């Protein structure tokens, strides 16, 4: 059994694309999830090179450096949290990362910052704001529901963080996408 970490897998369609590639290359696997594929057996160097080439053509990247793998595990763990559609009340990012990676959070945080140029917390906020944009675009819920779902202390906190990150308020963002070509009718 071999676990491969794959960069840029961010959605269920990515999982299907990697599964299809594994079928196409006749590589037996147990399962594919966000950011990883668990193979039934170890691959030889030629098979790894073929798989890596196929992944690159689809916009993915096979990760092999230990530090890069750790960073990608952090990102994938946080992205997976947003597949749940709700951040648990009282969510603590350091406890969550420690439970997923099983290493000292301060070391992981330092590694992440040095390699990515932003903190884990800033990355997490960017993911939250992307989710807010998605829900606003599709009019799935109002700001009160969004702030609750993403564990903001208040609508004001969400609005403040949204403006700090995007340069506009959530209502200005809604107006912009409504009036843009291809926006809401």
Structural class: alpha+beta
Largest sheet: 4 strands, antiparallel
How would you describe the oligomerization state of the chains in this entry? single chain
Helical segment tally?
A: 9
Number of strands: 4
What is the general shape?
Answer: globular
- Helical residues, percent: 55-70%
* Order of strands, widest sheet: 2-3-1-4
Distance between the termini: 51 Å
Gyration radius from CA atoms, angstroms: 19 Å
Low-confidence stretches: none
Mean pLDDT: 90
What is the chain-wise order of helices and strands? Answer: EHEEHEHHHHHHH
Amount of beta strand: 5-15%
Structure in words:
The protein is α+β, with helices and mostly antiparallel strands and 185 residues long. The protein is 61% helix and 10% strand. The protein is built from 9 helices and 4 strands, in the order βαββαβααααααα. Strands 2-3-1-4 form a 4-stranded antiparallel sheet, with helices on both faces. β2 and β3 form a beta hairpin. α7 crosses α8. The longest helix is centred in the middle third of the chain and has 18 residues. It is globular, with a radius of gyration of 19 Å. The termini are far apart.
Task: Output the keywords.
4-stranded antiparallel sheet; alpha+beta; 9 helices; 185 residues
Structure summary:
The chain is α+β, with helices and mostly antiparallel strands and 185 residues long. The chain has helices spanning 12-24, 45-57, 66-83, 93-101, 105-116, 120-137, 143-149, 155-166, 170-179; strands at residues 2-7, 29-33, 36-39, 61-63.
